[in-house]
Fold each of these.
Amino acid sequence: MAQPLTFAAAALASARRELAFLRASRWETAQITVLPWAILLVFMAVFSHTVLRDVPIAVVDQDRSPASRALVRKLNAAPGVYVHAMPVTLEDAWPMVRKVDVYAVLYLPRDVSREVGRGQTATAIAYYNASYLTTGQAAFREISAVVQAHNAELSLSRELFLRGRSALRAAPVRVQSTVLFNAERSYEHFLQSLLFPAVLQLAFCIAAVAALGRELRDGTAPAWLDASGGRPAAAIAGKLLPYFALFMLYAALALLWVGGLRSGAVAGSWIMLLAGYAGLYLAYAAIGSLLIGATRSMATALSLTGIYSGVAMAFSGGTFPTIEGPLFTQIWSRLMPFTAYVQLQVQQLDAGASWRDSLWPLATLGVFVLVGAGLGLPLYARALRDEASWGRR
């Protein structure tokens, strides 16, 4: 009588069976190799410029004074914007905004320099296109910085002329703005650090659900369980092992690109970042087993996976704010493992937090694993033993 397989031996047998399937199926192999990296390479190419530069703006200069012309020259010298056009009136500028030839308009009314010379406060109005929020705000921020610097020079010259050097006094309060953790305001770093794990977790979750659902769809569950010594838990672990190992390699390469080759260095712990990726994958694998076990349909489970995992980045708080959002938004955000991973990644990739500070989001990922597996594995194991479910699509 043959000895029953140990858990490790059963898992390895299941892993070998899955690898044999992948070698025989080019399409399935391409889905976990070529497709994810094709998407990531597109992101690398699209977001290859680190910092947004030379955003086109328009300046409506109705003052036409030496001071206003000096301001235009300073705007052209600023790295973030360049003066694309100088229409005569605001009415002439709006078509440029509507055609997206420019992303912002600076309006200098008549007599601006005269009001400044009288010691009065003059108003320059900046309009920016909030439909292109990131680009428009970048242009507005650069315009504001240039105008404030120009103001300081004008104020100094006026005080020197009116009162002499002895009358000059420092401002009572001055605000100094310092950017934390992404001082270059790199859009490449900001977007790629979110897009890479978002793509990888989606691809992994789809691969895991497809691998588990295939046994039910094709009616091959009995042969799979026999090859794994009749141990469902070991069979599931072994089946997912090749995907987990492959996507952990992808995670290490993604972190090397985002946190090493393109951004200088990881501020915190590489080990915690990789642990976060491992927790993220395991959480989605557990949730995938729940989806396939509850639906017993590969097609339905894949559809639910796309809905659940595909919107993870939008609800993570990394792109769109979830603070003080609708109750549904806040609940849905917390029901996604990706939200916990993003918190861990910000702490370790950019902020340089202690590894202890990231134990909470890592523990949150562990809760997803325990709850998802605790509910999903019994349902999926029951589906494997239920002959009525085999062949169901």
Amino acid sequence: MAIHTQQSVSGFIASEPQLTHTERGDARFYAKIGQEHYRKEPDGSFTQTETTFHDLVAFKKTAERAHARFAKGDKFVAEGYTREYDTTTPEGEPVTAEEFVAKKLGHDLARTNYEVTRTRRTDPAAERDAPAFETAARREPTPTAPALGH
């Protein structure tokens, strides 16, 4: 079976996160996000170039949890998709804008230190009786013929 993949985005929360609700009453998380960009130089070093800013939204439980856990400046990674929508500028001009809709959202482990607090399971019998998770058998790499001259 093929690995399921989706678009992802990483960066930092550039604005104070906002929690609002849609017309249907669903929670909606919004934050302006920043992405730092770098250019590799001929000597192997990197030079930081312009930071770009984008809109990130999440809905329902993801929105509520994101609002409770994220603050301006936090580094994040998100999985989801990019969506275009029609809006107007402050001057009233129609424009097409783009936002990243996060279906999954978390802190960037490579750039954030934190502790995880796990809740205890409430029904030990259910845990004991649950079928064990089994991983697919790991295949050993196929041996290759030695290269000529070795």
